Amino acid sequence: MIAADRPVQRPAGARLLVVDAQGRLAHLPRARFVERLRPGDLVIANDAATLPASLHGTHLRSGGTIELRLAGRASLARDDVHDWSAIVFGADDFRTRTEDRPPPPPLQAGDVLSLGSGPQPLYATVQRLLDHPRFVALRLHGTPDAIWAGLARHGKPVQYAHLREPLQLWDVWTPIAGAPVALEPPSAGFALDWAALRTMRARGVGFATLTHAAGLSSTGDAALDARLPLPEPYTLPPETVRAIHAAWARGGRIVAVGTTVVRALEHAASRAPRGGLPPGPGLATQKIGPHTALQVVDVLLSGTHEAGTSHHELLRAFADGDTLRRADAALEAGGYRTHEFGDSVWLERRAAVAPARKAPALAA
Predict the structure, then answer these.
(1) Mean pLDDT of the chain
(2) What are the backbone angles phi and psi of residue 280, rounded to the nearest 5°?
(3) Do 254 and 44 contact (CB within 8 A), yes or no?
(4) 29/176 same-domain check
(5) Are residues 62 and 42 in the same domain?
(6) Using a CB cutoff of 8 Å and minimum separation of 24, what contacts does 225-230 make?
(7) How many domains does one find in the chain?
(8) What single-letter DSSP state applies at residue 99?
(9) What is the mean pLDDT of residues 68-85?
(10) Residue 40: which domain range?
(11) 273-301 tens-digit pLDDT
């Protein structure tokens, strides 16, 4: 596959590899994904906007230059912005490949980081190392309003070396972006536009949203990448739960736009041993892979993902290894573009696996 190197969300030539429930492959223009939808289906997308989660600054004890990338917090609450996990690099910026970035100055509990330039930097204190010299728990200083202002003033979108120019915040917001809680864009949503939503409605297809704090996709370190995805908070609205049960009642499929939607829905379902799908906040801590019995999602519309990544591992809950190898080969042979501004895949849950859904008693 070829890395998409320009932040164009909906290029005219965007492509879609379709993998149906029987493992058959087909190639379509991405704009035609709506043709794969059936009357009664429900499409669910992540409406999280992307935070400027990359902050450059100084490790005050040593005077060393750092870049800090926020990696997670416990909830989506607006005032819950003091305590974070973070990945810390040394000097350089996104133009250096993540795996080639130098380490930060040696970090220890109590170290203070000055983030940003000018007269009003944002300050953070390292609380502890998280079993890795560049992975830390930290606390941002100030009131919630001051922290939000500091992120807006000094932060930039997290970015990787395959992109040529610095990202602007509007580059990483999907058309349905709402609350700024994601640390990287829920980029599967770049495939959506208002024309697609109008066509869905005309075809009798429902549309709903949830909010999930999409996390970092890479840390540049194999040991840290093996921990991905990290715990990610989400909120499942009651109206989305009602829409899911209504779709089930009419025999429709649940179509997730992005791996974050799969993770949120499947985590929420796992919390309801007596049946139903509980609305409200949650913290997705599970990893989804070949041994996951999907309870909610039937179809995934996602970006293209390279084998060995946590995103690609999630695809194995939908399709067997042979099907995914054939799909990967088709993506490679077809010159599909990868990463967040790349092409897309439509992946239907394999026909041999019955949905492990619980009784549709509405828990709302």
Answers:
(1) 94
(2) 110, -170
(3) yes
(4) yes
(5) no
(6) 225/309, 225/310, 228/309, 228/310, 229/263, 229/284, 229/287, 229/310, 230/71, 230/72, 230/85
(7) 2
(8) G
(9) 97
(10) 2-50+166-348
(11) 655 799 999 999 999 999 999 999 999 99
Q: Do 142 and 127 contact (CB within 8 A), yes or no?
A: no
Task: Read off the CATH number of the domain in which 229 is found.
Answer: 3.40.1780.10
Q: What percent of the chain has pLDDT over 70?
A: 96
Q: Could you give the CA distance from residue 205 to residue 201 in angstroms, rounded to a whole number?
A: 5
Same domain (yes/no): 238, 287 = yes
Express as a percent the part of the chain with pLDDT over 90: 88
Helices (H) and strands (E) in the chain, counts: 7, 19
User: Which of 97, 95, 84, 189 minimizes the C-alpha distance to 137?
Assistant: 84
User: Could you give the CA distance from residue 238 to residue 257 in angstroms, rounded to a whole number?
Assistant: 19
Angle at 53 between CA 48 and CA 56, to 5 degrees: 170
Q: Does residue 361 lie within any of the structural domains?
A: no
**Helix, strand or coil for residue 304?**
coil
Phi-psi domain of 289 (left: phi exceeds 0; alpha: psi -120 through 50; beta: other): beta
* 180 and 249 fall within a common domain: yes
pLDDT band per the 50, 70, 90 thresholds, residue 356: low
What's the pLDDT at 180? 96
DSSP, residue by residue, 228-252:
PSPPEEEEE-HHHHHHHHHHHHTTP
Q: Please name which of 15, 16, 17, 23 lies closest in space to residue 349, comparing C-alpha atoms.
A: 23
Query: Tokens standing for 43?
Result: 């499409």
Q: Are residues 63 and 29 in the same domain?
A: no
The conformation of residue 156, written as its DSSP 8-state character, comes to B
In a domain, 287, yes or no: yes
Query: In terms of pTM, does the model score above 0.90?
Result: yes
User: What is the 3 state secondary structure string of 163-196?
Assistant: CCCCCCHHHHCCCCCCCEEECCCCHHHHHCCHHH
Residue partners of 13: CB distance under 8 A and separation at least 6: 29
Does 202 lie in the same domain as 138? no
**Can you tell me the distance from the alpha carbon of 8 to that of 342, in angstroms, rounded to the nearest whole number?**
9
Is the bond preceding residue 229 a cis peptide, omega within 30 degrees?
yes
State the pLDDT at residue 108.
97
